[in-house]
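Below is a filled-in request sheet from our internal design queue. Each sheet records the structural input a requester submitted and the sequence that came back. We keep these sheets so that new team members can see what a complete request looks like end to end.

REQUESTER: design group, bay 2
PRIORITY: normal
MODE: inverse folding
CHAIN LENGTH: 397
BACKBONE (tokenized):
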């Protein structure tokens, strides 16, 4: 456990191999083992960006209508669930601790740069975002939406910033796609983002000292199938949270304050944030490169590891790999690993479900494991029994 949380880690496998079930097991184990730690420096919390509402309150068996309990139902008050889509949570009867809103002022030009292909905007439109941000600071997004190529004042502004009219039209079309989302508002009306951060840090409204926090699952509801929404929210929130950990870490270096506990951020479709084109621009790429410095690491979940930047893959400490049938993906996972020829043969013989190869930083040698059962009353009871008395005291219901 202690070696696992020290570095970023990955769960890989082709579609249908049970990555979601395996990830639930990993997250539940981290929460349980963290609760049992007496030393605050050895505790860890998770932030899970849950695209398809599988980890928080309830999930489903793949390929069927059967339901399984999420982390909140099993581990109780040691997990907080937030949502971007309150209506979806209500329909699913999922208990949530808060509803997240993202304000226009929370978005930076760098976030739009990451979304360039997804929003179908041009490189010139991205450059326009940078120019507008330099001029209008946090008000740049609102100003970009209000640009009118027929207005004389706006024409002068565009000429001064060297932005072509066609670029404005292209940029506004892309930004309007984001503005349609109900969670994306001109001004945040709630303090839900602050509440989410407080759950992770364990700080109260008048405290800055980190205490053992709670793990948080952010459900995307109906927005889970909108890649632009997922990438925007994940990047914006992670940047804010990473800043909190950075400040706490630097304070511990300068005045001897206690360093923050570990934070592991779980992202699905990780290659969208960590491919060669955008890894240098996203906060996730920065976290992967600075993994030890601020006690923030990643848990990347992906079926296309070959699309992840090679430098990022080299920073992943422990890899839990289910069956992969693409040669490039196998080569990406095994890159730089000694005995890769033998491990390649092992990967090829894995069963299609409930079997994985684990190798890297947290284990002394590569080992094939059969994952334990998840979704039966016996498995739920086993997880609950592993919660120690100290954990129940720490997180009373």
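RETURNED SEQUENCE:
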């Amino acid at each position: 456990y202690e070696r696992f949380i020290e570095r970023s880690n990955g769960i890989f496998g082709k579609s249908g191999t049970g990555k979601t079930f395996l990830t639930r097991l990993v997250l539940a184990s981290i929460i349980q083992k963290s609760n049992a730690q007496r030393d605050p420096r050895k505790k860890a919390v998770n932030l899970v960006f849950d695209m398809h509402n599988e980890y928080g309150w309830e999930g489903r068996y793949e390929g069927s209508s059967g339901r399984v309990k999420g982390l909140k139902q099993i581990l109780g008050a040691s997990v907080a669930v937030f949502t971007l889509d309150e209506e979806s949570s209500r329909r699913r009867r999922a208990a949530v601790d808060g509803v997240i809103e993202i304000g226009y002022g929370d978005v930076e030009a760098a976030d739009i740069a990451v979304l360039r292909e997804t929003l179908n905007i041009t490189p010139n439109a991205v450059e326009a975002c940078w120019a507008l941000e330099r001029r209008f600071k946090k008000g740049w997004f609102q100003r970009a939406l209000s640009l009118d190529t027929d207005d004389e004042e706006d024409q002068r502004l565009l000429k001064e910033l060297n932005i072509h009219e066609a670029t404005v039209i292209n940029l506004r079309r892309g930004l309007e796609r984001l503005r349609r989302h109900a969670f994306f508002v001109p001004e945040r009306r709630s303090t839900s983002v602050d509440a989410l951060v407080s759950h992770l840090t364990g700080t109260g409204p008048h405290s800055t000292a980190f205490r053992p926090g709670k793990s948080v699952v952010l459900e995307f509801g109906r927005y889970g199938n909108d890649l632009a929404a997922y990438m925007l929210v994940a990047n914006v929130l992670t940047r804010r949270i990473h800043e909190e950990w950075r400040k706490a870490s630097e304070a511990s270096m300068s005045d001897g304050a206690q360093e923050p506990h570990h934070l592991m951020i779980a992202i699905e479709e990780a290659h969208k944030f960590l491919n060669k084109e955008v890894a240098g621009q996203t906060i996730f790429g920065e976290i992967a490169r600075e993994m030890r410095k601020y006690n923030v690491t990643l848990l990347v979940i992906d079926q296309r590891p070959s699309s992840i930047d090679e430098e990022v893959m080299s920073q992943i400490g422990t890899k839990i790999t289910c069956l992969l049938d693409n040669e490039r993906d196998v080569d990406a996972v095994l890159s730089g690993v000694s005995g890769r020829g033998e491990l390649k043969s092992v990967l090829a013989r894995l069963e299609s479900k409930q079997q994985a190869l684990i190798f890297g930083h947290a284990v002394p040698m590569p080992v094939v494991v059969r994952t334990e059962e998840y979704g039966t009353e016996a498995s739920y009871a086993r997880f609950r029994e592993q919660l120690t008395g100290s954990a129940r005291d720490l997180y009373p219901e």
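SHEET NOTES:
- The first helix runs from residue 2 to 6.
- The CA atoms of residues 279 and 285 lie 5 Å apart.
FILED BY: M.R.
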